[in-house]
Amino acid sequence: MNFSSSLITVKELNDNLSHQNLIILDCTIDKVGQSLQNEKLELIPNSRFFDLEGKFSDHTVNLPHTLVNEKTFSDEAQNLGINQDSIIVCYDRWGVYSSPRVWWMFKTMGYNNVYVLDGGLPSWIENNFETNSIYFQSTKKGDFTADFQEDWFADIQVMLNSINDRNKTIIDARSEGRFNGTSPEPRQGLRSGHIPNSKNLFFENVLDGTTLKSKTELKSIFEKLTNSTNENIFTCGSGITASILAFASTIAGFDNIKVYDGSWSEWGADENLPIE
Question: CA-CA distance, 180 to 174, in Å (whole number)?
């Protein structure tokens, strides 16, 4: 079974809950200044916890959420019981926030049968579908094997090579104030401003509350920023909301994408890198 779009509805998921290859991942992390840790834990049945900030982040570098290497990703995915033939559905308890980041991580690790649940847990609850409060623990190790795809990934050198390339569009998901340097950065020690020649699209502008805007609306948004032939490189504060834009752009038909993994947490901290 394959869903027809990378973005699936709660009804589509509910209709396929019994599929033997289905893996449901709760990809929730805290937002800046907001947490769900003290909230009652409600989950879609059979959810497995994807530890985005712990096991699936590289803690050898002083940056948040940095993508781990192939072996670590493979090992941790196998520990979740994920196989090469799994159908992976990512969701979060905010709506659409950190789930696109995990979608991008699997794509970057060479896995295509991965989807994002539109509206996440709030939409699931709104439709009166069943919930529980216990994570599913796999007793059997999976056979997932990562295969890193550099076409999905941007680092400092990629960014430096892209700044003056007219065939590439850099799009920053931070707020207008942070992009323009008129609002403070939430992380200490970072300069204010943005990567030269980048454009600004606040990630909330592709959302309609807890769900993604329609394909038609998204297409209209991205047409004003880029064109169908350009490679689009997304950045933000730490790589999370950049992934929301990256995912939204693929839904809109602009699917030549990269995410700058280090984002402003890396760029803004390096005095040798140019800013505007």
Answer: 10
